[in-house]
Amino acid sequence: MSTGNMNLTLKVWRQKNNKTAGALVDYKVTDISPDMSFLEMFDVLNEQLINKGEEPVVFDHDCREGICGMCSMFINGRPHGPKDLVTTCQLHMRSFKDGDTIVVEPWRAAAFPVVKDLAVDRSAFDRVIAAGGFISVNTGNAQDANSLPIPKMQADAAFEAAACIGCGACVATCKNASAMLFVSAKISQLALLPQGQPERYRRVQSMVAQMDSEGFGNCTNTGACEAECPKGISLENIARMNRDFASAKFISEETV
Amino acid sequence: MSDINSNIPEGELTQKWTKFKSSVALVNPSNKRSIEVIVVGSGLAGASAAATLAEMGYKVKCFCFQDSPRRAHSIAAQGGINAAKNYQNDGDSTYRLFYDTIKGGDYRAREANVHRLAEVSTNIIDQCVAQGVPLAREYGGLLDNRSFGGTQVQRTFYAAGQTGQQLLLGAYSALERQIGMGKVEMYTRHEMLEVVKIDGKARGIIARNLITGQLERHFGHAVVLGTGGYGNVFYLSTNAMGSNVTAAWKAHKQGAYFANPCYTQIHPTCIPVSGDHQSKLTLMSESLRNDGRIWVPKKKDDNRKPTDIPEDERDYYLERRYPAFGNLVPRDVASRAAKERCDAGYGVGASKLAVYLDFKANTERYGKIEASKAGNHNPDKETCMRLGTAVIKEKYGNLFDMYAQITGENPYETPMRIYPAVHYTMGGLWVDYNLMTSVPGLYCTGEANFSDHGANRLGASALMQGLADGYFVLPYTIGAYLSKEISVKAIPTDHPAFVEAEAKAKGILDTLINIKGTKSVDHFHKRLGLIMWDKCGMSRSEQGLKQAIEEIRALRAEFWRDVRVPGTSDELNTELEKAGRVADFIELGELMCIDALNRNESCGGHFREEYQTEEGEALRDDVNYAYVAAWEFKEGVNFELHKEELKFENIKVAQRSYK
Ligand SMILES: Cc1cc2nc3c(=O)[nH]c(=O)nc-3n(C[C@H](O)[C@H](O)[C@H](O)COP(=O)(O)OP(=O)(O)OC[C@H]3O[C@@H](n4cnc5c(N)ncnc54)[C@H](O)[C@@H]3O)c2cc1C
Ligand code: SF4
Ligand code: FES
């Protein structure tokens, strides 16, 4: 139960709101334990700021278990920091060394405007889902769950795509701020399941249209998104979405 | 003995819900279009209700404090969801799920509600699969099941260790579909701060836009709270950081009774506290007890590595004490047993407040099965461990990763260290059979209400209850009320009741900002948590509770004198949000102790040291305490007790035994 002995310099993005400009501000934190999570280190910083009568740093977080997708810090040039396959809240200070300087910025993308300090507005993701990321089935219409067997491999693949937490790291890391990995994960989940077939092509068209209108950039296949995704969402999903999108055009032209 | 009416329909238990559904008054489609319903909360309970009400044609407004409805705390549920499908053909039935839930709750839940829950449980699975929720399957393509504590059948459906995530994303997609069609107006980053009552009925809410700080008035013909549990009153819990009691507490102060506040669930398998910096505790799902065996060394202060301690020097104390259920006893029993061993000096790890959860035996067993499937009937140990590890990885991979990430230890090689932590709150706003609180037109669903779990919730039953309430119960029962409201026109929000409620909310915010004291909100929250954990946690005593009440009252006074909230109220101010929540937690903490003190018996998660059997098991008092304690808020911070008698007409009440 010891407090730790790491001393760190933080350069943290401070920005009052979306109307004012922001800047990096230097802070020092001391006695950091390697067992702390990155956000607990920020708790220490904030307690320090409050005790000095200053305003604490605003950052988004909730579950602190790597599942809600709310935490979103851009740490030393990488979304969610230096470790692969973890979110900011699951990053622990043992990944850093005493004396390190750590730069912490918000997600940066035209479609994710800064709200305050490190918190950004990711509601564009919700609007993309509202455009078609669902199966149109009202409550009470369902048949018995086991009347539709689904091969395990297929169900597992759908589950892997469905594991996306909607954090937006893929967008933040992409030089084009493309949302293809996020959007394709949802499209793949539903395209892989028999329940998703009736709306399969309509879905891809409306979700892609919404994605474009939100101001996300194009995909130029750099693969940075997959490398930074904390949940290991695969680029294969993007390929699947592109195939479906191409087929969708073909199918809708045919039916016109 | 009851002085409150739970409105349970007449008739035989198994027929009550069917009869209710076929006789409840309906609202015709054209009327539904002009009826507005406010749903606060977008977790399983809120999102499912908001989506379903909108599908039915009501105008819905839905609120959450996170930046997206998908991030509600339900997302973090790991292990699974129960349903009486009997797909495993192991003797499950609606009655058995009903019986297990009543017994698991230590005979402190309402029979009619629990039976309804068991009845609709099967519809939930059907609904979720239809939505594309990728639940785990067997090679034959059918759904897979696992076991959870307190049952002897396999009725738990799951999606790896991410069941809550997948179920919530299903409900979220249904909700987003309605948002896209313009039938639900979604308000994210909004926090409800008051219930607005007009002529005794709930008619709206005051919500704060967390980005601009503006207070907003919203009208609804009815208001539904699906705002989650209050485990964070203990500061450290497995709940998300933002989980809070504010919505429920404000409703309580407007007349909604708060029921059984002292029933808290301490979950036996969580990662132990590692230091003072700790901000939350992480659950290791109960599903792990399917394959993990719990033990401590037989010798006190045994400092050997766990892997160096031979079999015959280990005490598998759950298997020893409860041979019939073994590692799968209910949570309250498992937690107390861990505490008992640690208090007796057998705990492990640096803090000595931990026990081992060991997967080795079952890893080896799975390995053997896999080897023999591949034709190798005499595999060596190493092969078994390798093949078995793959099986374990598939079942619990994300939990093992999470454990490794947090502790820096590899659980595939060394047993996990675990200790009980606050996890779930069975208490909550009192509701009748219709899920309506004691304020007409104000409903409460999911973990925020008290309804179905008695004094102890069985694993995988909260997800079931949240979705049952939101998809299948509330959308029907609310019709009984709304069918009488069709002639009520939308009330303009310049009505004096809205003005007054807004002024009240503003008054509290201004006061908090203007105290300009010397201590942070977290400082007070941590102190409250410590009092609660020590004196109203895993075990309670008359003396401790009386002390706790004094301490909490003093803490409340100090908070309002000395809290420091930087910034202003007309901007995004996370400290101000926390301050409001902690203020409510402090009042709730006092009520929890008062309730625990009132209940002179032990039952489920409520363990009073004075009331135990010779073997240290909980000792109920059915003659005097077979009631729901529903507390009414009184001016100042005072509480008046009302009792709802619990009648058991279909189950024989017995001493719980898992031996
Ligand atoms: C780590 C963990 C694992 C669990 N695993 C399981 C499991 O395997 N099986 C199981 O059955 N149960 C499990 N549970 C319990 C279960 O997850 C919860 O009881 C359940 O999800 C609660 O759902 P809910 O919809 O009632 O509340 P929540 O999901 O907590 O949602 C609350 C909603 O209310 C909103 N809200 C709250 N206050 C306000 C306010 N004042 N204004 C506006 N909005 C507000 C929030 O934004 C949120 O949208 C687990 C719990 C935890 C902590
Ligand atoms: S695809 Fe990965 S990085 Fe992108 S939102 Fe989903 S989880 Fe986050
Ligand atoms: S806080 Fe939930 S994923 Fe990090």
Helix count of chain A? 8
CATH architecture of one domain in chain B: Alpha-Beta Complex
Ligand identities: flavin-adenine dinucleotide, iron/sulfur cluster, FE2/S2 (inorganic) cluster
The termini of chain B sit apart by 34 Å
Helical content of chain B (DSSP H or I, runs of 4+): 25-40%
Order of helices and strands of chain A: EEHEEEEEHHHHHHH
Oligomeric grouping of the chains: heterodimer
CATH fold field value of one domain in chain B: Flavocytochrome C3, Chain A, domain 1
Task: Tell me the CATH superfamily of one domain in chain B.
Answer: Succinate dehydrogenase/fumarate reductase flavoprotein, catalytic domain
**Distance N terminus to C terminus of chain A?**
69 Å
Shape of chain B: globular
Give an overview of the whole structure.
Chain A: One of its GO terms (biological process) is respiratory electron transport chain. Chain A: This is Succinate dehydrogenase/fumarate reductase iron-sulfur subunit. Chain A: Belongs to the succinate dehydrogenase/fumarate reductase iron-sulfur protein family. Chain A: One of its GO terms (molecular function) is electron transfer activity. The complex is a heterodimer of chains A (256) and B (659). Chain A has 256 residues and is of the alpha+beta class. Chain A has two domains: 6-116, Beta-grasp domain (Ubiquitin-like (UB roll)), CATH 3.10.20; 122-250, Alpha-helical ferredoxin (Fumarate Reductase Iron-sulfur Protein, Chain B, domain 2). Helix content of chain A is 35%, strand content 13%. Chain A is built from eight helices and seven strands; from the N terminus they run ββαβββββααααααα. Chain A has helices at 38-51, 123-130, 152-162, 169-173, 180-191, 200-213, 224-228, 236-255; strands at residues 6-14, 23-32, 74-75, 78-79, 101-105, 114-116, 119-120. In chain A, the strands form two sheets. Chain A has a five-stranded mixed beta sheet with strand order 2-1-5-3-4. Chain A is elongated, with a radius of gyration of 21 Å. By secondary structure, chain B is of the alpha+beta class. In chain B, strands 5-2-1-9-17 form a five-stranded parallel beta sheet, with helices on both faces. In chain B, α14 (521-535) packs antiparallel against α15 (542-562). The longest helix of chain B has 27 residues, at 381-407. Chain B is globular. Chain B starts with 15 loop residues before the first helix and ends in a 14-residue tail after the last strand. In chain B, 60% of the residues are buried. The model of chain B has no long low-confidence stretch (mean pLDDT 96). Classes of the chains: A alpha+beta (256), B alpha+beta (659). At the A-B interface, α1, α2 and α3 of A face α3, α5, α6, α11 and α12 of B. Bound molecules: flavin-adenine dinucleotide (FAD), iron/sulfur cluster (SF4) and FE2/S2 (inorganic) cluster. Flavin-adenine dinucleotide (FAD) binds next to α3, α6, β6, α7 and β15 of chain B.
